[in-house]
Amino acid sequence: MTTTAPTREQREAKLEGMGCKRKRVEDVRFTQGKGTYVDDIKMPGMLYGDFVRSQHGHARIKKIDASKALKVPGVVAVLTAKDLKGVNLAWMPTLAGDVQMVLADGKVLFQNQEIAFVVANDRYAAADGAELVEVEYEALPVIVDPFKSMAPGATVLREDLIGKNTGAHGPRKHHNHIFEWVMGDKDLTDAAFNKADVTIKELFSYHRTHPSPLETCQCVASFDKIKSELTLWGTFQAPHVIRTVASLLSKIPEHKIHVIAPDIGGGFGNKVGAYPGYICAIVASIVTGKPVKWVEDRIENLTSTSFARDYHMTCEMAATKEGKVTGLRVHVLADHGAFDACADPSKWPAGFFNIVTGSYDFPVAHVAVDGVYTNKAPGGVAYRCSFRVTEAAYCIERGMDVMAKKLGLDPAEFRLRNFIKREQFPYQSALGWEYDSGDYDTAMRKVMDAVDYAGLRAEQAAQREAFKRGETRAIMGIGVSFFTEIVGAGPSKNCDILGVAMFDSCEIRIHPTGAAIARMGTKSQGQGHETTYAQIIATEIGIPAADIMVEEGNTDTAPYGLGTYGSRSTPVAGAAIAMAARKIKAKAQMIAAYKLEVHEGDLEWDIDGFRVKGLPEKTMSMKDISWAAYNSPPPNMEPGLEAVSYYDPPNMTYPFGAYICVMDIDVDTGVANIRRFYALDDCGTRINPMIIEGQVHGGLTEAFAIAMGQEIRYDEFGNVVGGSFMDFFVPTAVETPKWETDFTVTPSPHHPIGAKGVGESPNVGGVPAFSNAVNDAFSFFGSTHIQMPHDHWRNWEAAKKFGLHA
Amino acid sequence: MAKTHVTMTVNGEPAEGLVEPRTLLIHFIRENLSLTGAHIGCETSHCGACTVDLDGRSVKSCSMFAVQAQGAQITTIEGMAHADGTLHALQEGFRMMHGLQCGFCTPGMIMRAHRLLQENKTPTEDEIRFGIAGNLCRCTGYQNIVKAIQYAADKLNGVPHKEAAE
Q1: Is A113 a residue of the active site?
Q2: In the annotation, is A237 catalytic?
Q3: Residue A172 annotated to the active site
Q4: CATH number of residue A225's parent domain
Q5: Domain count for chain A
């Protein structure tokens, strides 16, 4: 019997490396119900914690009486701020430099704020106990509107800050003011506006919403008194940061804290920060000596742990009458709720909002952001976006549309006239960023051709005439959006979280048989890291992806990393993988040279091993090199084949994309039918096209939800309206539009494999595409801007306002 | 609280336990029976992560008491793979068509799709979308879930399935 050597194509295919649609490794367990999520963890003697929460938006707490609760069979303890003060944990630091009450200390500042933590031997008893804790309140005036927060006589929200005129980010202008953050050149910008032919000024409010992953935030804390060690399982997007914060707060040495993030049921930014539930579970475990589980329910999730957005952006733009932008000025009023609990890099109180010049060549710009307190839940996190990039993209993309209308230009044409050109990269933006690479014209034109943009505009004009003649009750909107993201935080020169630099890491160990394990500082919440990271290694060092196990989430075994959010996994950890793999490859080359009795320089890489240049039959595969590395390394070489890399990126990456949305709005019902949504994404090098498409579908669906209805609203008394899935819009398969996807590839020049990250792009670019479509439809009837979310009622109201019901 | 003895058949095996009258079926399945495939995403019957098959119907097990399942025949995600360990057509379809990401909705989604394909062996795309409207997914945008169910329908009907995941 003869066997033929595999062809090059067969060897390539066997690797399942970068660029192939590798099926996901994770799915084998998830499709069989064998994932391990936090609530699946069961330990002997485990107790359950449940919160007593505030009924009021703002009130003084006169008295907390837990006596009835403590009589409930099964209730073990009730913790209040008084108990936490004993261990100096009544308050905790936020990632944004503020402090936050763990349990209400003297007063409550938002509805559903945590007041007491009831610990019991099952979850039903804990809930029974929580019902019976009696809290006596004295109601205080409530502020829910951020525009009223800094009024002269406004009630004082944060009494702990009285007399503190300086916060974590500089001077405070008012007792309800948090920070002012300013970027750009004011004088040059003012000058540009003074000589502008055309200017616009418009308030774009990006409403408060919530990431609402299907699995809520939860943890199990287990303190071992004998060993003085704490093990904490939790839904953590950044497990190492949680370990460091837990150590700093609890004074337990960091090596005695074991943080484990098991499978996570979606995160979208909700699971980056530290929440009172984690602290209370830890304290309860220390107090009771037993493991304590805390699982928030959906209402608690939507109303207490980390909202997103609530940015109110006044956008001013200057342009020549020929349609060239000459200046941008933006003021933002940022509503952070009761505590500034952003999860941005610590020195960036408004995140990377200064990406607000977008994809356009603005010579000058100026931005000022004022953060204020209100009686709403604390936050705001980056919901499927790099820090405040969604807000910035919405601001500039609405601004471009409003300006285009004022100039009488088509919005796509106006964008084309103002794009940063391909030859301008690397491009220095007026607000301080260096864009790495881009080809905006090509992307925009590809999408316009794909949807027959000119044809759509002609159809829209015809439909408008038909509407005026009374032949249809629908108006057609075409939404154009072109976004530039900034992801991959980030370079240690300007990015840290509480002083921890935002590098990321990878450790690869090749086993003697040529199989491997890679351990990472990041943590997947559905992104498929176990699948895609292995593809990078497969391409880099020729080991089949199927032979590589990727492990994340255990801080005892994983190298320190900053976790997964802000689309940073591929830009930062993906780079660390390539760098670690290249260290291994360098050693492998030395081993191969010794074994093949040639100089290292005489070898060349060939798919899955080295071969001697000019002698293609003289080869050594990575599999054979792996065995040799352990068992017969060259003299004076240490055995083994492993490497670790901590990657501090030299720059951010700048993914971009062009989206077009076509919709028909029924003016009598307000129902918007999304007829077509075409999304082109350029995320640089594509590791797994199947997973990229999946990420784009998911991100567009979240963008659809946010733009078209999803909102956390408060009434004037501080009551949350829309705090369950009954009221909070999460689209089903029926409402969700069908997505058409496309791509161009413009690699990042500074990233080892040229990849830029993609998970958040569709949310960043999607929201303005939907909103621009709605606004486009109404713009022909006299509207300049309609605030989101564009639910049926608001669409109906707009139709009424502009006389379309007659 | 006084407890009630419940017996039922879960994934073909007899199951029993002592529960409070108020114990939710999902808690009985997850905690008493240690079958943690079905998940809890909302506790208000909106998300469908807890969906199991009960006496030939899709049931959101967070909205039913364990005592109401007295004597019932229940199938959970753990009962879907074949005895020889090979995956059910739906499990295979979800993997092949990239119908899942974080995996939290997947067990409920597959159980619902399983019942849907019993009710309608050749559903159209719209029928699939309507048929799974009680199950929320935050990751996929449903497009590949629809394809996964079409893949499974084709496989169960013995029809070759051509389309690849996007």
Answers
A1: no
A2: yes
A3: no
A4: 3.90.1170.50
A5: 3
Candidates A22, A53, A384, A611; catalytic one = A384
Residues (pLDDT < 70) of chain A are 1-2
Q: What is the phi-psi region of residue B154: left when phi exceeds 0, alpha when psi lies from -120 to 50, beta otherwise?
A: alpha
Measured distance CA(A631)–CA(A638) in Å, rounded: 10
Interface confidence, given as ipTM, is 0.98
According to CATH, the superfamily of the domain at B4-79 is Beta-grasp domain (3.10.20.30)
Q: Shortest CB distance from B104 goes to which of A34, A37, A693?
A: A37
pLDDT surpassing 60 at residue B166: no
**Interface contact B37, partner A, CB < 8 A:** yes
Supply φ then ψ for residue A458, to 5 degrees.
-65, -40
Rounded CA separation A588/A625 (Å): 6
The predicted-structure confidence for A355-374, as pLDDT tens digits, reads as follows: 999 999 999 999 999 999 99
Q: Is B103 on the interface with A (CB under 8 A)?
A: yes
Backbone angles phi, psi at A32, to 5 degrees: -110, 10
| pLDDT tens per residue, range B137-149 | 999 999 999 999 9
Please tell me the predicted confidence (pLDDT) of residue A346: 83
Q: Is the pLDDT of residue B1 over 90?
A: no
DSSP reduced 3-state for A305: coil
Residue B145 contacts A, CB cutoff 8 Å: yes
Q: Would you call A10 helix, strand, or coil by DSSP?
A: helix
Closest CB to A690: pick one of B98, B135, B145: B98
Check A736 against B142: CB less than 8 A apart. Answer: yes
The answer to whether the CB atoms of A31 and B142 lie below 8 A apart is no
For residue A1, the model assigns a pLDDT of 52
Check if B19 contacts A (Cβ < 8 Å). Answer: no
pLDDT at B162 over 80: no
Average of per-residue pLDDT across B133-160:
97
Report which of A741, A654, A658 is spatially closest to residue A701, judged by C-alpha positions. Answer: A741
Better-predicted residue by pLDDT, B1 or B158: B158
- Domain of A99? 38-140+216-264+271-303
Nearest residue in B to A742, CA atom: B166
Q: Tell me the chain A residues in contact with residue B102 when contact means C-beta distances shorter than 8 Å.
A: 213-215, 263-266, 525-526
DSSP helix/strand/coil, A655: coil
Q: Measured between beta carbons, which residues in chain A are less than 8 angstroms from residue B128?
A: 733
